[in-house]
């Protein structure tokens, strides 16, 4: 329907010159080549910053009425075959000590680190060092610790990170929450 309306638009509203005739007759022949582009125009977002929230949909009603034992029996052969692989499960916790170098002091790097670590649910600490770097200890799930490492590579807006050194840590105590420690 949209294709025919585009063709009708060109025939209903032709471009006229002062002589009363269509000035660009070749446009009618080139229009079919432009149709894929014209049809895609309404799919291009007007603003990239407008993001719709991702909603988690509830399970379908027919799955809710099934007893739990039956749901497990449906998926148990699949999960049993996945557990037979030779790969061990990932460790429950990962602890790393990170040294961040560059313009990282005086730009609220420690406050930014505390905020991000608490957001990710990590344990540990952050502190300034006298050599101008920032040192931190991150402990938590491996995926969240890796995410925090990536965030530290960028840092807050006013920081300029030139180097990030990551050391596995087994003997440092992360504590029970994430805190800001005094300069060492």
Summed up:
This protein has about 180 residues and is an alpha+beta fold.
Question: Would you mind describing this structure in some detail?
Answer:
Its EC number is 3.6.1.7. The protein has a 5-stranded mixed beta sheet with strand order 4-1-3-2-5, with helices on one face. It is globular. It folds into 2 domains: 2-43, no CATH class; 94-180, Alpha-Beta Plaits (2-Layer Sandwich), CATH 3.30.70. 39% of the residues lie in helices and 19% in strands. The chain has helices at residues 2-12, 26-40, 61-64, 68-83, 109-120, 142-154; strands at residues 94-103, 123-128, 134-140, 160-168, 178-180.
* Tally of individual domains: 2
Q: The CATH topology of the largest domain is what?
A: Alpha-Beta Plaits
Distance between the termini: 72 Å
> Which second-level CATH architecture of the largest domain applies?
2-Layer Sandwich
* Number of E strands: 5
User: Reading side by side through the largest sheet, how are the strands ordered?
Assistant: 4-1-3-2-5
């Amino acid at each position: 329907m949209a294709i025919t309306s585009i063709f009708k638009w060109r025939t209903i509203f032709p471009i006229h010159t002062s002589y009363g005739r269509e000035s660009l007759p070749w446009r009618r022949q080139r229009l079919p080549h432009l149709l894929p582009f014209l049809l895609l125009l309404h799919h291009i977002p007007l603003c990239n910053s407008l993001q719709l929230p991702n909603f988690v949909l509830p399970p379908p009603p027919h799955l809710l009425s099934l007893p739990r034992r039956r749901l497990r029996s449906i998926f148990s052969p699949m999960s049993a075959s996945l557990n037979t692989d030779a790969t061990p499960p990932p460790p429950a916790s990962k602890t790393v000590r990170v040294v961040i170098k560059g313009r990282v002091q005086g730009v609220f790097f420690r406050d930014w680190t505390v905020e991000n670590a608490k957001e990710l649910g990590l344990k540990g600490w952050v502190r300034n060092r006298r050599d101008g770097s920032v040192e931190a200890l991150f402990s938590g799930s491996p995926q969240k610790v890796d995410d925090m490492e990536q965030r530290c590579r960028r840092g807050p807006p006013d920081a300029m990170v030139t180097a990030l050194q990551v050391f596995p840590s087994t003997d440092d105590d992360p504590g029970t929450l994430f805190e800001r420690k005094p300069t060492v």
